[in-house]
Amino acid sequence: MIFAHDTEVALAAAAALVNTVDGEDERLPDLAALDEFVRTWGWSGQRQRTAKELREVRALRPRLREVWTAEEDRVVEIVNELLREAAALPQLVKHDEWDYHLHATPPHAPLATRMSVEAAMAFVDVVRTTELSRLRICDYPDCDNVLVDLSKNRSKRFCESGCGNRAAVAAYRARKAATP
Ligand SMILES: [Zn+2]
Ligand SMILES: [Zn+2]
Predict the structure, then answer these.
(1) Per CATH, which fold does 5-178 belong to?
(2) For the whole prediction, is pTM greater than 0.85?
(3) Domains of the chain, residue spans
(4) Is 37 left (phi over 0), alpha (psi -120 to 50) or beta?
(5) DSSP 107-151
(6) How many angstroms is it from 1 CA to the middle of ligand 2?
């Protein structure tokens, strides 16, 4: 394990959130899609289920995406800004099946605030351990998805949306074509 479990989960969730938009392709088009996303990533806490909530969650994505591409000093600015805006207050909590982990927002804070602070707290760990190089853009041609490399040998190159398989298939075809 590279980071604490809750940090790794938070990084994966933040990457998944960033990857819900790809140019014109909007994978959080409505509240039903947001519900599904929240369920998939096990978000607890209060929901408003309003257009505003959806708007705020969508607006968070470009800010989080910048963490994957920015230099360290800029990442620190973004992270501190996210924590400041939410007046984050770290507290150890235990709920559902989860053992003690950090929450830095109360359960009734807006969903986008809870998402941004959870991501920011995870980025804190990444910066503190000088592991920002683990946050990268997918290597597959024309894929702009972000990825979190939690492998021991830093070997992850592709995002979670099937680019790894696509690359393997392309490599196989290329090998086959090269065989006389
Ligand atoms: Zn929790
Ligand atoms: Zn990809």
Answers:
(1) Jann2411-like fold (1.10.3300)
(2) yes
(3) 5-178
(4) alpha
(5) TTS-HHHHHHHHHHHHHHHHHHTT-GGGEEE--STT---EEE---
(6) 23
Query: Which candidate, 4, 13, 28, 1, places its Cα nearest to that of 118?
Result: 13
Task: Copy the structure tokens of residue 55.
Answer: 């708007």
Ligand nearest to the CA of 138: 2
What are the C-alpha distances in Å from 102 to residues 56, 98, 121, 154?
23, 11, 8, 26
Indicate which ligand has the atom closest to the C-alpha of 97.
1
Which listed ligand is nearest to 106 at the C-alpha? 1
Gap from CA of 133 to ligand 1 centroid (Å):
26
Considering every ligand atom, which ligand is closest to the CA of 18? 2
Inter-residue contact 167 to 157 (CB < 8 Å)? yes
pLDDT tens for the chain, 180 residues: list them. Answer: 899 988 999 999 999 999 999 888 999 999 999 999 999 998 888 999 999 999 999 999 999 999 999 999 999 999 999 999 999 999 999 988 888 988 899 989 999 999 999 999 999 999 999 999 999 999 999 999 999 999 999 999 999 989 999 999 998 999 999 887
Nearest to 126 by CA among 92, 75, 89, 86: 75
